[in-house]
């Protein structure tokens, strides 16, 4: 890898699907995003493990063991594991339904936004649409039953790099960040034996610097993985840290002009995979930003595509800009 590496050429694509269910759907505010993410993950898993016969099941494991890692959909679309970085990355397909993001009346028609985050996700668009069609046949869990749905129309947006998208943000005096689903953010607390500590806000303030730094590291590391660049773990870590440090410097030039942020607590959910219970908590609302916006724009745009914080593949941390 050369010394002028940048993830600004990282591509994304947005799909807008029009869907129609067999029966009216009504969700609590948080349920729809979790149902969508969970149904997508299960369908990817089953498509590979059951239909393609690439995976072996084990009595002691709830996840497949891939026998065809080069061509397997599960590797890139379910839980990408990096042999170089020795860790899982977030699933590079982010689903969000604006129809169910706010309190709503029972409806059979809803929109579904799908963001394809990177080259492998974009290349797998036809497989992803097939997965969503299969998802619809099984249905979404609503009021203790599965309600099938079908995709009646969809639009594919242009494939745009983060650099391409900068052209849409010119002559800005301010920008507003909308947290549409709970932002569940975490960091390692060095004063507490480096155990992971979860929080929604820092003393009722938005931890924007940490959010952008975390996003920048994940973005750069995933870009290198997605491009399958031949680098070792120390080199990848160094490059991602450089991008993280640049994000921190950019965030230092921002200030919050106005904000309406609140912490939410929707109880907890039980993981199908390990039976552990996880809190449904986080930060929602909006923040109007001012200051020197130009250096921070690439990170804010990436944040609006991939979301922020933890558990993004489960529907947490959906962010949009205006």
Written account of the structure:
By secondary structure, the protein is α+β, with helices and mostly antiparallel strands. The protein has helices at 31-52, 73-77, 119-123, 125-138, 162-165, 208-227, 233-251, 297-306; strands spanning 11-25, 55-56, 65-66, 81-82, 87-88, 93-96, 107-117, 140-142, 145-147, 149-156, 160-161, 175-183, 185-189, 195-199, 254-270, 277-291, 319-321. Strand 13 (185-189) and strand 14 form a beta hairpin. The longest helix is centred in the first third of the chain and has 22 residues, at 31-52. The chain is globular and about 50 Å long.
What's the SSE blueprint?
Elements: E1 11-25, H1 31-52, E2 55-56, E3 65-66, H2 73-77, E4 81-82, E5 87-88, E6 93-96, E7 107-117, H3 119-123, H4 125-138, E8 140-142, E9 145-147, E10 149-156, E11 160-161, H5 162-165, E12 175-183, E13 185-189, E14 195-199, H6 208-227, H7 233-251, E15 254-270, E16 277-291, H8 297-306, E17 319-321
Antiparallel strand pairs: 1-7, 1-10, 1-11, 2-3, 4-5, 6-7, 8-9, 12-16, 12-17, 13-14, 15-16
Helix pairs in contact: 1-4, 6-7, 6-8
């Amino acid at each position: 890898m050369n010394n002028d590496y940048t993830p600004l050429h990282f591509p994304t694509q947005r799909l807008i699907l029009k869907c129609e269910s067999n029966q009216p759907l009504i969700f609590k505010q948080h349920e729809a995003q979790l149902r969508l993410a969970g149904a997508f993950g299960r369908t990817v898993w089953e498509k590979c493990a059951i239909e393609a016969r690439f995976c072996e099941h084990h009595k002691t494991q709830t996840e497949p063991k891939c026998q065809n890692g080069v061509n397997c959909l599960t590797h890139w679309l379910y839980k990408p594991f990096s042999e170089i970085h020795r860790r899982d990355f977030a699933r590079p397909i982010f689903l969000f339904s604006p129809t169910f993001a706010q309190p709503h009346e029972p409806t059979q028609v809803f929109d579904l936004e799908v963001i394809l985050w990177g080259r492998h996700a974009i290349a797998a668009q036809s497989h992803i649409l097939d997965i969503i069609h299969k998802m619809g046949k099984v249905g979404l869990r609503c009021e203790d039953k599965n309600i099938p749905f079908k995709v009646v129309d969809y639009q594919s947006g242009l494939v745009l790099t983060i650099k391409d998208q900068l052209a849409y943000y010119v002559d800005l005096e301010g920008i507003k960040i909308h947290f549409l689903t709970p932002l569940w953010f975490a960091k390692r607390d060095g004063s507490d034996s480096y155990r992971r500590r979860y929080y929604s806000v820092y003393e009722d303030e938005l931890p924007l610097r940490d959010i952008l730094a975390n996003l920048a590291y994940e973005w750069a590391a995933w870009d290198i993985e997605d491009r399958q660049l031949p680098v070792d773990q120390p080199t990848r870590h160094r490059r991602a840290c450089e991008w993280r440090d640049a994000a921190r410097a950019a965030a230092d030039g921002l200030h919050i002009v106005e904000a309406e942020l609140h912490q939410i607590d929707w109880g907890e959910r039980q993981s199908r995979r390990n039976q552990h219970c996880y809190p449904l908590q986080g930060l929602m609302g909006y923040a109007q930003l001012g200051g020197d916006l130009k250096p921070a724009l690439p990170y804010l745009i990436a944040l609006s595509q991939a979301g922020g914080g933890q558990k993004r593949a489960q529907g947490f941390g959906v962010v949009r800009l205006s």
